């Protein structure tokens, strides 16, 4: 194998599961090993075997701590990887917290799931990994500085550039040696927006051979929000939500997004622009992540404002389950910031279950909502949803403020890619849903001389000096190509159950409801329905 080969084992057609395996003459490096989120079909990939041999991986450079980039590292180690995981010091601090929290969540969810399965006489499952598994792999982390060249197996070397997305986040420049000279490959990681409260503008080198670029917001522009404009918009949302006995629920990613929103809320209250009210941070992970941000506050933009917000008398962090449950008893207008940001797990689901049916509730989305998640379903205007098996009619008001997004929007991504020119061979668009990738691909094809490629999950490309070549693979796909980044049959099923419930409620009497159910059974299994109706007629005629 003279030329490097790049495998796209995640974030190909969707925004989660970032994982790229680079094979060179001298070895294999894995850039990111993230968890899949979104639809149930996509999340099932987390439980399947990794699509490569972990024992043959030589090094793992990690772009940043978000779970969709780091979340399967404990699984990787558990499956046999014992080598180094390179990351910035801030990323290591955050991963130390986040990966153990991820293990705890999986243990808790599996306990609940297995309890239901035992009652239904179904098979039980094991967590992907436990908190202990996460703790056991932490010694594999090795801290790197921005701009510092590191060499790994086979003469491959890499260095980190500040991506401006999250504390410690990085784009990673990789050089692989070859007979025709080194091949320069740049992995963007997640590229930060220009208006981040804590982060600097993203930086990266120019003149690369291959660029692997995220495209989360490849099809959309955010409104231009300077700090004052963003706070003005937040003030409007708080003011319109402030009703006696009401609540403003903010589903938020526990790491950085929560800290940014908290800093802005307290600043508005200190300036008298909104009435001071209780602000509850309902996330143990956010509490622990906040300690990491305090540690690095001197390196953050607006670090002093963040520290002031933490000491505000109306800010409280819930730690125990009892403290979290007690939030349902709070009276008077208050604000709750709770994880998870896409409403897929964690305490926000309990808060939503308690409040969505009430018109005095406002839900404010401050981050990207992936297809198939509860957050996206609510954001798109669902009137009825199911949480923990219960049907809820949505009366709450939905609001979105994308000024807090950690991702560059379309024009910012275009400008960032332009700054990498000349790109000699190809741009691979990853970490984006299909519509976003297609829109960005159409624009870039007119702006850059390099070929623009949208890889599918588990595609592999040979990266030669002449260009990228797709390698034919007969291995069965881990998931149907149409599934990543889209709602799946589980979402359709939940919608069908709600529609059926509404239909049955709308029928006037028991006889009418029986007709609806009989028609449904006939559609599902005509032969079985005929047999049932035959038995019913026999019993009626014979007095049974």
Identify the overall geometry. globular
Strand tally is 23
| Radius of gyration based on Cα positions | 25 Å
**Classification by helices and strands:** alpha/beta
Distance between the termini: 77 Å
**Helical residue percent?**
25-40%
**Largest sheet features:** 7 strands, mixed
Strand content: 15-25%
Name the average pLDDT.
90
Number of helical elements: 17
Looking at how many chains there are and whether they match, the oligomeric state comes to: single chain
Give start-end ranges of low-pLDDT stretches.
534-544
Strand order of the largest sheet: 7-8-9-10-11-20-21
Secondary structure layout plus pairing:
Elements: E1 5-8, E2 20-23, E3 28-31, H1 40-43, E4 60-61, H2 67-70, H3 73-78, E5 85-87, H4 89-119, H5 131-137, E6 141-143, E7 150-151, E8 157-162, E9 170-176, E10 183-187, E11 210-214, H6 227-241, E12 247-251, H7 257-270, E13 279-282, H8 284-295, H9 303-310, E14 315-317, H10 321-326, E15 334-338, H11 348-355, E16 361-365, H12 374-379, E17 384-387, E18 390-393, E19 397-400, H13 410-418, E20 426-430, H14 434-447, E21 451-453, E22 460-464, E23 467-470, H15 489-506, H16 510-524, H17 526-541
Domain Metallo-beta-lactamase: 16-241
Pfam families: Beta-Casp, Lactamase_B, RMMBL
Domain Beta-Casp: 258-378
């Amino acid at each position: 194998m003279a030329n490097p080969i790049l495998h796209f084992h995640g974030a190909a057609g969707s925004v989660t599961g970032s994982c790229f395996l680079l094979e060179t003459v001298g070895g294999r490096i894995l850039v990111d090993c993230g968890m899949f989120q979104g639809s149930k079909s996509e999340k099932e990939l987390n439980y399947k075997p990794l699509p490569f041999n972990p024992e043959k991986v030589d090094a793992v450079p990690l772009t940043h701590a978000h779970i969709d980039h780091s979340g399967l590292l404990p699984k990787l180690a558990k499956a046999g990887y014992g080598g180094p995981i390179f990351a910035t010091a801030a990323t290591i601090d955050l991963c130390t917290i986040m990966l153990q929290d991820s293990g705890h969540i999986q243990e808790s969810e599996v306990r609940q799931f297995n309890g239901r399965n035992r009652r239904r006489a179904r098979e039980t499952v094991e967590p992907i990994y436990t908190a202990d598994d996460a703790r056991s792999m932490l010694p594999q982390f090795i801290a790197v500085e921005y701009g510092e060249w590191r060499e790994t197996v086979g003469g491959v070397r890499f260095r980190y550039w500040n991506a401006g997305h999250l504390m410690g986040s990085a784009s990673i420049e990789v050089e692989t040696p070859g007979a025709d000279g080194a091949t320069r490959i740049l992995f963007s990681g997640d590229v930060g927006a220009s208006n981040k409260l804590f982060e600097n503008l993203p930086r990266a080198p120019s003149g690369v051979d291959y660029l692997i670029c995220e495209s989360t917001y490849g099809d959309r522009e955010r409104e231009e929000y300077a700090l004052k404009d963003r706070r003005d918009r937040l003030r409007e949302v708080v003011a319109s939500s402030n009703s006696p006995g009401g609540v403003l629920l903010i589903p938020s990613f526990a790491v950085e997004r929560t800290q940014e929103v908290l800093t802005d809320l307290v600043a508005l209250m200190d300036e008298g622009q909104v009435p001071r009210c209780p602000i509850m941070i309902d996330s143990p992970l956010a509490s622990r992540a906040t300690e990491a941000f305090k540690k690095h506050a001197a390196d953050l933009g607006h670090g002093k404002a963040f520290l002031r917000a933490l000491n505000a008398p109306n800010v409280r962090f819930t730690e125990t389950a009892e403290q979290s449950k007690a939030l349902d008893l709070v009276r008077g207008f208050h604000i709750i910031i709770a994880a998870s940001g896409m409403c897929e797990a964690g305490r926000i689901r309990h808060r939503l279950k308690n409040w969505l049916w009430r018109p005095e509730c406002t839900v404010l989305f401050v981050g990207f909502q992936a297809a198939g998640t509860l957050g996206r379903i609510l954001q798109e205007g669902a009137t009825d949803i199911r949480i923990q098996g219960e049907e809820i009619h949505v009366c709450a008001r939905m609001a979105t403020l994308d000024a807090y997004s950690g991702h560059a929007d379309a024009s910012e991504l275009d400008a960032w890619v332009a700054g990498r020119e000349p790109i000699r061979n190809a741009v691979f668009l990853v970490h984006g849903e299909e519509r976003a990738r297609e829109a960005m691909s159409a624009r870039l094809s007119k702006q850059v001389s390099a070929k623009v490629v949208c890889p599918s999950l588990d595609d592999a490309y040979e990266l030669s000096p002449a260009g990228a070549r797709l390698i034919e693979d007969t291995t069965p796909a881990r998931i149907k190509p149409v599934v990543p980044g889209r709602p799946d049959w589980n979402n359709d099923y939940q919608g069908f159950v709600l529609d059926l419930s509404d239909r049955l409620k709308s029928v006037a009497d028991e006889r009418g409801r029986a007709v609806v159910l009989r028609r449904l059974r006939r559609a599902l299994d005509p032969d079985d329905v005929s047999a049932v109706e035959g038995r019913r007629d026999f019993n009626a005629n014979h007095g049974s």
